[in-house]
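Sample intake sheet
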Amino acid sequence: MKLVLKRILPRRIFLFYRLILLFPKLLSTYMYDFNRYLRYSSEVNVIKLESLISETYHVLEKGLTMNKAKIAFGKDKVNNLLNILQRYINAGYAQDRTQFQSALNVLEKYYELNSHSNDIEVRLLEERYINLIKTVSVRKVEIKGGGTIVEKSDLLKGGKGNFQELAFSRHSIRNFSTESVDIDRIKNAIRIAQQSPSACNRQSARTYIIKEKERVEQILSIHQGNRGFGHLIQCILIVTSDLNVFRGANERNSNFIDGGLFAMSLLYALHYEGIGACPLNWAVLKENDIKLRNCVGINDSENVILIIGVGIIPDELKVASSQRKSVEEITIVI
């Protein structure tokens, strides 16, 4: 039927006909997604509190890994984290869980950095932390939190090992040398990432490489989530996924899956190539999305998946510990 109509109807009328048929399904499925998102993104439970804990302590963790960590930085984040941890304790949730424990260790590292600070707010926050610790019944010293000093040679060695070594040695790098990045090595990383699984081999992923300093700075100012290290980024990669290759209400989210698989492969491939990389989350409102598109010239048919800041790794640097949850916490055997 579709083929017959396509032959006999003008293109515009045929597209309008398809839209009429598709609209009810699209509306229904998007409302289904909307209702679930509205319900579960608003609900306060142990998962929500743990995600808030992780998100907040990781901001402090990143600050602790900066080349020159500022004394008394992020006091508002410390205050927020203490509030969330107190809510977690008051709710009676298990205190041996990894993200709760990691947050305590990040705060410990924060106060170590500020041990000689005379900042009144820091000292008051430290007092709150000490009082909070008195109510904690479990302390796991093996849980990571804060920053870890690594050698460039170890990162490069891990990147050339087996997959487990590559995965465990990859870190988000926020400290780069002034050396220029070789475009050919980036292109080779992209070539490797092209081996990612793709829906029916439709290969929706696209990569924009931006080296022009002025435009790099403009993109970072639009992004706004690179404070403290953005000035060190030599080059930017933007991963997108083209909506043109998908169709139907059932594939409404496929571009994010397709683009996400490619983006992770690209991060591993960059590590394999010995290039430092930091994924920069693209979670913005439409105004900033439009600004980025205009700045780079991204096709309207492409959704931005994420931005990756890249550069050459210095001989020694600090990386965020980014404690992962235990396998038991995220695995369900049926």
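Comment: The longest strand covers residues 302-312. The chain has a mean pLDDT of 87.
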